[in-house]
Amino acid sequence: MDTMSTPPRRRSAQTSLGQVVLGFELIVVALAALTIFGLGALPPVLALGGGAALCLLMVLTIALMMRFKWAFILGWIVQVILVASGFLVTMLFLIGAVFAGIWTFAMTTGAKLDSQSKGNS
User: Which structural domain, as residue segments, surrounds residue 30?
Assistant: First the structure.
């Protein structure tokens, strides 16, 4: 057995923070889809199907963030979709804005931390 295997790739702070935000947001999106369904704001197939599609996009984004920088753009797209869902249920404007703010903070803070750690290396 080879004991000199390559060490696992270190996750950037931006990736870690983004994945945490999307993970928590995933729960909120699932509950929002159930709310849209329960209020009858959309037909059941669209409410639950759209919520499931957005959840799938979020899980995919979480996975892709480890390997591809363009996956962060998917994270921004998720934020836009969540804010736009406020047209279905008005309270989602507020929830979307809060998560977009958290996402923005995570992306800017993560990028600063990553640049500082590269400067110290």
Answer: 13-113
Cα 59 to Cα 25, 73, 89: the distances in Å are 10, 14, 23
Angle, helices 71-84 vs 13-39, to 10°: value is: 30
* Angstrom distance (rounded) from CA 67 to CA 12: 11
Per-residue pLDDT, 5: 64
Mean pLDDT of 100-112: 96
Per-residue pLDDT of 67-82, as tens digits, reads 999 999 999 999 999 9
Residues 6 or more apart in contact with residue 71 via CB below 8 angstroms: 61, 64, 65
Residue 103 lies in a domain: yes
92 CB-near residues (< 8 Å, 6+ apart)? 32, 82, 83, 85, 86
